[in-house]
Amino acid sequence: MSADFLDTIKQNQGIIFKLVRIYADQYEDQQDLYQEIVYQLWKSFHSFQGKSKISTWIYQVALNTSLAYVNLKKKHSRTVSLQDISLQMEEKTDTQVEDKIAEMYQQIKQLNEIDKAIIFLFLEGKSYEEIAVITGFTITNIGTRLNRIKLKLKQKIVK
Questions:
Q1: Closest CA to 37 of 18, 53, 47, 51
Q2: Is the pTM for the entire model greater than 0.70?
Q3: CB-based contact 59:121 (threshold 8 Å)
Q4: Residue ranges of the chain with pLDDT lower than 50?
Q5: Are residues 97 and 144 in the same domain?
Q6: Distance (Å, whole) CA 88 – CA 153
Q7: What pLDDT digit, counting tens, does each position of 64-102 carry?
Q8: Are 56 and 98 members of one domain?
Q9: Number of independent structural domains in the chain
């Protein structure tokens, strides 16, 4: 691997980790998705033309890879063992902040795939314009969707 590519991944791995957490529940699935995103970035790294920020390009590739991964997982769904459930419970801590973050992620995971992507990008601090470029929607559409997503999340979390 080239040093440029490795540096790019290191500088932007937070983006990938957060996205993976939204689109994959199990640790093994998160690792698989992370590797698939990095692989897809590697395959297309030479074609990045610099017309947008590198982080915007990474978001596009990572979101497309995540959506494809979710669709593939739906086709090949599997059952969860009791061991997986107990391991997840042991990993959780009792702090209030982490519980609130976990609840937020849980509610985000229940959104449809496009809404997940939009709220993720918003939580990452992306502007409506940047979200529009990454997703291919209009800025107005992003604003409307974000308002609806926020309302859905607020209603679910307040309950």
A1: 18
A2: no
A3: yes
A4: 79-93
A5: yes
A6: 23
A7: 899 888 888 777 655 444 444 444 444 444 577 777 778
A8: no
A9: 2
